[in-house]
Each structure stands twice: as C-alpha cells, then as structure tokens.
Amino acid sequence: MAADSEFHVLAVDDSIIDRKLIERLLKTSSFQVTTVDSGSKALEFLGLHEDDGIINTNTPSVSPNNHQEVEVNLVITDYCMPGMTGYDLLKKIKESSSLKNIPVVIMSSENVPSRISRCLEEGAEEFLLKPVRLSDLNKLRPHMLKTKIKDHQEPEKQDKEEKQQQPQSNNNNRKAMEEGISTEKIRPRLNGITAMV
Amino acid sequence: MDLVQLQRQLVDYKTSLYNEGFLDEQFTQLQELQDENNPDFVVEVVSLFFEDSERLLNELTKALEQQSVDFKRVDAHVHQLKGSSSSIGAQRVQKVCIAFRNYCEEQNIEGCVKCLQQVRHEYSLVKTKLESMFQLQQQILSAGGSIPM
C-alpha cells in the first residue's frame, strides 16, 4: 500500500451517530480515520499545547514544536458543538504555526450564509451541509493533495477564489463569534481521548 | 412463508415506509454504506439513534417539567434530536423537531409540551417499524436468502 495514497482524516463531532456515519463515509472513501467528540480533544490529538494556542509571531515556523504522533492531512469538524465550536477549532488551527497548513472542513446541519462565509474567511476549505454524503467527500482529496505539494513550497498562499460555496454577503464579522469562546484553556495532559480508528 | 414471499414482503414494507414519510433518502444512503465488510452498519447506526433519542426524550421531559423552563436547554436537546434523526433519515421525527424548535424560540411552553408528545409518538412509530424491518431482514438471512436493497 503506497503511503501517499493514504490520507489521515481527523473527524470531530459531538454526536455519536454522526461520528459513526462520518467514519464510515471516510473509510469507504479510503481514508484513514480518527474520530473525537470535541474540539479540545481534537487539539490534543493534533498535539497543540497551550503556548501554541496564543498567537506568537516571534515563534519561527522553521522547526515546528510538533508533538503530533500521527500526521493528520485534514480535519473535518461539526460546527455546532458544546464548548469549543467548529469555528473556534478552525481558528485555533489556523492561528497555530504548526497546524495552520492542515486543511479544515466544516459540517453543519444549518444553511446559514453568514456562518458559511465566516468559516470560509477564517480559512476553511469547504463547508458541507449535513447529512454529508459520499459525493461530498470527493471534494476533500484535492485539498489534501494540495497540502502535500504546498509543503515543498511557500506555505502562505491563500486561494480564496477557489471557494465554491461563497454567498454574496460581504460580512466582516470575524470577531462576532456566537459562543464568545476565544480564550479556551487547553489542558495539555488530558488522558482518555475516545478516538476510534 | 417461503423466501421469495419474505423478500417480497420486505420490499413492500420498505416502500411503504418511504411513501408514508417515515424514512427518506438519507436512509438509502446508509444502506449504501453497508457492505460485506460492514454487514451490520445500518443496524448499528440505528441502534445508536435509538439509545441517543431515548436519552434526549428523557432530558426533554425533565427540562419541560421544571418550574422555570430553560428554553435554551430544551432547544439544545431538540437540535441534537433533529440532527440525529436527519442523519438516519427518520423524516417524520425530524419534521416535528423543526416545529419544536420554533416553539422553543417563541418560549411557548404549551407548544413545546405538545411537540414533545408528538415527537415521542413519531419516534416510537419509527422505532417499531425499523425493528420490524430488521426482523424481516433477519428472517430472510436465516432462510439463506439475501436482502433485496
């Protein structure tokens, strides 16, 4: 089995039914899957520690203090979750020097244009409406491939034109988060991640 | 009843479930995800749905019995139920949840109580029907037949 054809996806959803579903969808699409039930567990899995969570422009991204055991090629997360929302998770990933190049996809059962544009502005690659289908997952591989190529080039390019689900509203509400959780403390030594592979 | 009759009965039963709105296209999607390597996928997901729904219905009952109803909490539970019913294709349950959420927004306790009754009813209907369908499937498999999809 060729190593580069096996992409590893981290799926985040608080619903046990949806975790089971997304796991099956991803495996059927030949991805390796880990599922977790919260944003904080996702960050823990990704190896993000408290100091990485704070925007630190002085930290060089040359030698990543990456404590990841396993490489994650894409994060797919539910939007509405208690505690850390999918949006909060997206932000934390994009603000992290070690994780910002990981593509993030948001799923939501609600079709809210301002929510969609906010996520895309924050750097989400796709916004999928639930229930997610197999055909939706076909959109994922290109983002993971792009990252593999990107790793050998400049990491700072953002192709906003390629975003397909862009509604026409021009919302500048980056700070208008629904739950107001922007300073979530990440406890680095939590045990007992319920990760299903 | 012979195998062919059983299989016929299953097809007719399934068709009626779709026609009567108990199940929608999403249920078909679930079945398509099942294969020889994951032969119990549908039963497993549906079982999770049953467990989770029962938990949510209990929570909803408790929440609506409070002196001062926390509508945000009620809405959060209904949102979860709406999501999971949508994920398995339990259309009628999902529809009641939509109405239920509207009553939560209006902070209409009577409306909420009524919806809870309705959603319990729809849930119990779809549960019975899915269980019957699974039983029929099991009979077919035990008789050495395959499930017509």
TrEMBL record, chain B:
SUPFAM superfamilies associated with the record:
Histidine-containing phosphotransfer domain, HPT domain (SSF47226)
Provide the alphabetized UniProt keywords.
Acetylation, Cytokinin signaling pathway, Cytoplasm, Nucleus, Phosphoprotein, Two-component regulatory system
Signal peptide, first to last residue: none
Answer whether the UniProt record assigns the keyword Phosphoprotein to this protein: yes
Gene3D superfamilies in the record, alphabetically? Answer: HPT domain
Q: Which residues carry this modification: Phosphohistidine?
A: H79
> Biological process GO annotation list?
cytokinin-activated signaling pathway; phosphorelay signal transduction system
GO MF terms listed in the record are: histidine phosphotransfer kinase activity; protein histidine kinase binding
One GO cellular component assignment for this chain's record is: cytosol
Which residues belong to any copy of the HPt domain? 38-133
| CDD domains assigned to the protein according to its UniProt record, in alphabetical order | HPT (cd00088)
Acetylation as a keyword? yes
Q: Where in the cell is it found?
A: Cytoplasm, Cytosol; Nucleus
Superkingdom: Eukaryota
Reproduce the free-text note on domains from the UniProt record. Histidine-containing phosphotransfer domain (HPt) contains an active histidine that mediates the phosphotransfer.
Q: What does this protein do?
A: Functions as a two-component phosphorelay mediators between cytokinin sensor histidine kinases and response regulators (B-type ARRs). Plays an important role in propagating cytokinin signal transduction.
The record's annotation in PANTHER family points to: PHOSPHORELAY INTERMEDIATE PROTEIN YPD1
- What is this protein called in UniProt? Histidine-containing phosphotransfer protein
Q: Which organism is it from?
A: Hibiscus syriacus (Rose of Sharon)
